[in-house]
Amino acid sequence: MRFKKFYEATVVDIRATIGDVTKGRAKPVKSEFKSINKSGTATFYSNAVTTEDQSHWEQTIKPVKKFGKNVSLVKFREAWNGDVLVRCSCHDFRYRRGYGATEENFILGKKEKRPSNITNPPPTFPKGKICKHVENLLAVVKPNIPKMYKEFKASHQGE
Ligand SMILES: [Zn+2]
């Protein structure tokens, strides 16, 4: 695993932090691109497979490299191929993965300073610093780049 100077991580780096168990659990999960906001944070929805009364979880992802409204597709793609920050709204991410994601500095938004010693006693729970939804998101983010670019440009139209 290769972490850069400031411990940020690319999609490939982050995927390398996942355990085989979580990788297996990610298989029935489907992540779909939902939207991208004006500052370049993309939202994906994944089906909530195991939680009753919960139709989906929300994953958010943003490149570390900033880009403006006039960005070309090439530069946009470059940003997404660089370091990214991610987050998921699910309980697994919130209570178990957030601390590791904070340690590696790829968490998007509020940092999680409390270690997950109580909720994630090794080795009974799948290891890794991301949940199965983020694993799935990272697998589908690149094929979605053209769609994300189109929507990003559209959100800035007329400015
Ligand atoms: Zn999740």
Q: What would you say this structure looks like, in words?
A:
The chain has helices at 11-15, 20-25, 73-81, 91-103, 132-140, 145-155, and strands at residues 9-10, 31-36, 42-47, 56-63, 83-88. By secondary structure, it is an alpha+beta fold. It has one domain (9-154). A five-stranded antiparallel beta sheet has the order 1-5-4-3-2. β3 (42-47) and β4 form a beta hairpin. The longest helix is centred in the middle third of the chain and has 13 residues, at 91-103. The radius of gyration is 16 Å and the shape is globular. Bound molecules: zinc ion. Zinc ion (ZN) binds next to α4 and α5.
Report strand %.
15-25%
Strand runs, count: 5
Q: Mean pLDDT, nearest integer?
A: 84
List the ligand species: zinc ion
Radius of gyration: 16 Å
Main β-sheet, in a few words?
5 strands, antiparallel
Into which percent range does the helicity of residues fall?
A: 25-40%
With strands numbered from the N-terminus, the spatial order across the biggest sheet is 1-5-4-3-2
Helix-and-strand structural type: alpha+beta
List the secondary-structure elements in sequence, H or E.
EHHEEEHEHHH
Q: Could you say how many structural domains there are in total?
A: 1
Give the CA-based shape: globular
Alpha-carbon distance between the two ends = 41 Å
Low-confidence stretches: 1-6
Helix count?
A: 6
